Amino acid sequence: MVTCLLLVLQDRLGRFVPHLVQLLAEWTETFPYDFRDERVMAHVRAITQKCVTIDPGIRKEVSTLLQNLLHRLTTLEKYEEFLQRVNAESSTNCVENLSAVSLNHFNTAIVITTEC
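and the corresponding structure tokens:
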């Protein structure tokens, strides 16, 4: 009886695993920011390892899922670094331009007051 129940449970899990992996793939593709935290990634790795243990045939899909997620996270990180550089350069240029305008205005004010 217990053996029969285990076989039924194993069969149900085996049918569920591909759906779970598909859900994870869609989630990581749509919301990669959700997986930036290392604690979340530890859960993802644990879940995917259990999926492969239950259904070894799903290994390729799990591997692709994790590789795609890593690629997306790397791309997002590079994009954020680019935005920070652009923002820093923009801020620096604004300060330099403001300083030049302020100095010109200040020098003009000195010239005007000394001529009076």
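(Above: one complete record from the training split.) The chain has one domain: 2-115.
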